[in-house]
Amino acid sequence: xxxxxxxxxxxxxxxxxxxxxxxxxxxxxxxxxxxxxxxxxxxxxxxxxxxxxxxxxxxxxxxxxxxxxxxxxxxxxxxxxxxxxxxxxxxxxxxxxxxxxxxxxxxxxxxxxxxxxxxxxxxxxxxxxxxxxxxxxxxxxxxxxxxxxxxxxxxxxxxxxxxxxxxxxxxxxxxxxxxxxxxxxxxxxxxxxxxxxxxxxxxxxxxxxxxxxxxxxxxxxxxxxxxxxxxxxxxxxxxxxxxxxxxxxxxxxxxxxxxxxxxxxxxxxxxxxxxxxxxxxxxxxxxxxxxxxxxxxxxxxxxxxxxxxxxxxxxxxxxxxxxxxxxxxxxxxxxxxxxxxxxxxxxxxxxxxxxxxxxxxxxxxxxxxxxxxxxxxxxxxxxxxxxxxxxxxxxxxxxxxxxxxxxxxxxxxxxxxxxxxxxxxxxxxxxxxxxxxxxxxxxxxxxxxxxxxxxxxxxxxxx
Amino acid sequence: xxxxxxxxxxxxxxxxxxxxxxxxxxxxxxxxxxxxxxxxxxxxxxxxxxxxxxxxxxxxxxxxxxxxxxxxxxxxxxxxxxxxxxxxxxxxxxxxxxxxxxxxxxxxxxxxxxxxxxxxxxxxxxxxxxxxxxxxxxxxxxxxxxxxxxxxxxxxxxxxxxxxxxxxxxxxxxxxxxxxxxxxxxxxxxxxxxxxxxxxxxxxxxxxxxxxxxxxxxxxxxxxxxxxxxxxxxxxxxxxxxxxxxxxxxxxxxxxxxxxxxxxxxxxxxxxxxxxxxxxxxxxxxxxxxxxxxxxxxxxxxxxxxxxxxxxxxxxxxxxxxxxxxxxxxxxxxxxxxxxxxxxxxxxxxxxxxxxxxxxxxxxxxxxxxxxxxxxxxxxxxxxxxxxxxxxxxxxxxxxxxxxxxxxxxxxxxxxxxxxxxxxxxxxxxxxxxxxxxxxxxxxxxxxxxxxxxxxxxxxxxxxxxxxxxxxxxxxxxxxxxxxx
Lengths: 463, 485
Hints:
- Chain A is mainly α.
- In chain A, 69% of the residues lie in helices and 2% in strands.
- A two-stranded antiparallel sheet of chain A has the order 1-2.
- In chain A, α2 (18-60) runs antiparallel to α4, α11 runs antiparallel to α12 (355-366) and α12 (355-366) runs antiparallel to α14.
- The relative contact order of chain A is 0.13.
- Chain B is built from 19 helices and two strands.
- In chain B, α5 (150-166) packs antiparallel against α11, α10 (227-255) runs antiparallel to α16 (384-396) and α10 packs parallel to α19.
- The longest helix of chain B has 53 residues, at 20-72.
């Protein structure tokens, strides 16, 4: 009987234009988003690979040169683009893509794509994830707002109940029909799964991508499921379709438009972060302290790079200076990034009430486009820079320091350059993503359960 | 006219009685107030930071002046890497000055790009890539979400409040059966609807305008009533009025088809979702396709190649001996001349050539972005939300154009700075206290206010045009529609 209800509901969707119109519009947007995202990804992807290879080739082929000057040339490393970033680019537009590994201090990952776009960018980006997160719930509301209230207005609800249809079956049937609608919405995503997993991605990564896609579909089904039960509950509890619609639209706007921005403010108040100027000032202060300490310990002097340390110890000094800075740098960047994490966790937690917040976090983690993935890249790029620096300093200690005043005349042989390996970044596996998304997934499931139980309870008061 | 006023009067009585208008107004005032609070706080933080930077800068300059005179009189000994007499050092990290873009008095209206793009750069003799790539420290998740500023409430939420009071102008009367009764009086449907709409329009618009303007007048009275800012403010008010009117007229137009209340609500929210959520995003896709930003990867590669080239070209200067580090006599000037270490000269020259080559690439980025913004201006008419947003952003001084205007001026200033130091570095002149007073300072030139005003005014007028069209279409529908009743 449940299937009878389902098929009847679906027929109903088709008869009035709502479904065709709404879903049609969404599918058109979807396809556009896919094409745009996929093309961009492909272009940038190959460009980055080529650039990084060229970069390393140039590094290895340097002429004989003072190693510290070579470190001024440095190496560029480019953040790889995760295969599913075109489904959900997450924060990609708002973080850098390129890191220049150079002498001296830790450099940031530069070039945020958002810098090269107009203010219009701040309205959002046309991506599949954005469409499902923003417009998916709206489609469900449009389809389902009158599922009970409409029948009540037409008088068919009483007839149905008098036939002995249990109210829970009616609820499940209607929910299933809406679920099928939602699945139809996600179908393009699934189809693309196969297209990509067996086309563009390297063989070794195919399973990884497939698992991620499966998780994405699961997550979005849970997200849309929450809205399905919410829509049905409201439709049962409100006296008229008009009121049901208005209530649901208000809930949608509050949850997808209003809440995310309010919670940004809340998160910033609870976990404030320093601005650029403050951050740099604090970091510099701390660095000065560390440097002074290290120079005092090793060379017994207060002044960094003063006249008291002879040129024959400059290689050593460089080593000491670098090492002294690492701790302070790690501590400061670590603290800032942990703050970002805290801010995100707090907002994610409000997914209990506003599911958009948890699904967004979940989706970004699964597609490897959230901050934790970015951080992972930034940290390993910095590790590579330190490896480069350490090798260079020990080279200087071994050879240049002996030359005293002619420290900067020293030129290292070409063979040295290839002792610094190319930067090969292994993106974290799906397990890392799972770990990052566990929280938000649990929150979504709890909300789903809650909305299901609530719908079930309210369906007992059908008539 | 008398009928019109009568209807108006009665509608107000009803709305006061059922409290709907009261609730809507209260919520609107609350949201706008909160958004303004966010806007003012963010602006205060920026202003405070700029003040701090300026204070720090002046302190540092006077400390440097003091150090120079101490060294000149032989009471202090400089070190190799922190020697204010050395122009190559003073022109780079040690003495670099800030170029700052001031905060506009009306910027609390829209935070715009201010949370992402820096409003200050520390300009030095090094190449542009060393200081121009700086960005604000902000959680990318927050940047992605956007802030709760007044422009958000006005562009996204105000239309929804307008729908809340006007989505069922006809349908509710019809559903309650009062429409026939009303029309049995000597009034036309057009008059009735216009009056009903006016009854809602007037209070909502007055409230939104007052909720925005009063806090400004109270908190920033003197700044915003300065002559040009007053004009800016007036244009902002016009934009808000036009934008609100647009949504009222859209409600009137949709009402004129005589759908059910639920149908009206659905269609209106659908149109809202399209115009406010989807259209800007689509336009953004279009704009970035037509005028795509050049490749940052290419820029990175190019920068590196130029650096390599420089390292090769100045190999000899770079490997010069570094005796001066050990011999303090070399750290002091002789007859006003200062021997700038060849290695530092080499770095200056490398930076210079990086600037020359990268400059054209960077200019390409600016041109493309400029072209993108042009396209946004040209095709903004696809949605009043885009027009209103862009208009308010340029009034608030947080839009793309002003930031580009700033980077343009920073480029000029960078050139002046280098022009000042280059002869000193190349021919080895020691820096003096008098030189510090002659350091080029950045002076901000504001965007041409005429251009900003006319641009924003045009946007308001365009929305007014849409308003007129919708109004006429709505009235025509009401005139023809005998079947509504």
